[in-house]
Records
---
Amino acid sequence: MDLHATQDTPDTGYFQANITSQRDSRPVAGAKIQIRNVNYPNEIIEETETDSSGKSDTISLPAPPLEYSLTPGADRPYSTYSIRITAPGFEPVEIDGAEILSGELALQNTELLPIDNVQPDSEELFVISPHTLYEEYPPKIAEDEIKTVDETGEIVLSRVVIPSGVRSVCPHCMRISAC
């Protein structure tokens, strides 16, 4: 997968992390956050740590011009970065493909897994795939417009359908009524 990082980045976007423990949702103080260019994974662009509330400083990062998001067919309107989060007593986490837009704050909420719950030398990796506007994906599988009632699971329709015989919604209980 190509985690494209836009070369034309004259603008600035912002990044902030909020790190908590997966076990008890408490903030993780002193978590180290490294931000890298996805094309050069060994090059650290920025580095920060979380405070006692589990929040990092707001980091300014290069981003493409805002105009890219307003022009159909233009380059991607965001930069992609790789985020590595480590903290003593917790499993490291790597997030590839974090998107930074011009003038916007990207918030990364992450829960770290305590080491006593994981295997030694393990690391959790999350990959954020490129947006569907800028990447080729296989076509969706076509579904029948009319579904049988005996199927289990959820049914996704192509448009809003109101069942026949429905006349109103009860204002007290919000149930559909056929009376």
Note: The chain has no helices and ten strands.
---
Amino acid sequence: MAIQRDDIRNHATELYLCGGLRALSMRKLAGRLGVTAPAIYRYYASKEEVLRDIVREAYRQSATYIYRALSAATPLERFRRAGEENLDFALTHPRWYEMMYLSPERFGWSDYPPEVAAHAHATHQFWMDRVRECVDAGYLRAEADIRDVGMTMWAHSHGLITIYMRGLLELGEAEFREVYRASARRMLLGLGTRKLLSETRESEGALQGRGAETDESQTTEYTEVYG
């Protein structure tokens, strides 16, 4: 039976997430795949190498989603698109998403291996760049440290996704997407400038003119705060 790296990664991820390090061994992995252990060793020298490859691949796949945002025309559009793409990645590949955000100790590492750390750093830098260009374009307030703003937004997004993925919200996927978007909107407006508020109101006003619903009370609330 021919096996591929994707098959090994997928089964290894399931074994690990269901039972931790003790549940993942080359022998058990081979059994799941219906092959002998030597067949696995042709691809990986150890289960530690398998885990490194899984996390590295999770970051790589995530990048194929969020980097699509770079095709958007403006900083604000790129920021919003990146959030949508990140949500799509998490809901399409929940196992990979979970593996990306486990601490190194969970894998038996004292720290992230260099190749994994490089991917994590690139992902972090991508989000900081989206925040920075929104600040530079006048959409986000500049009085706070950009790193703090980015961390606040990331924690908000990651927290909502994690709560949903753990089954703590009694919502279907479509409902959760709406909840996520509405919550992200409130977060963005709360950190935004008058310019952001003005353009958001104009955009939503155009949608309303085509029959879409908007939250007028919320728009009024932010108008009172930012003038």
Note: Residues 114-136 form the longest helix (23 residues).
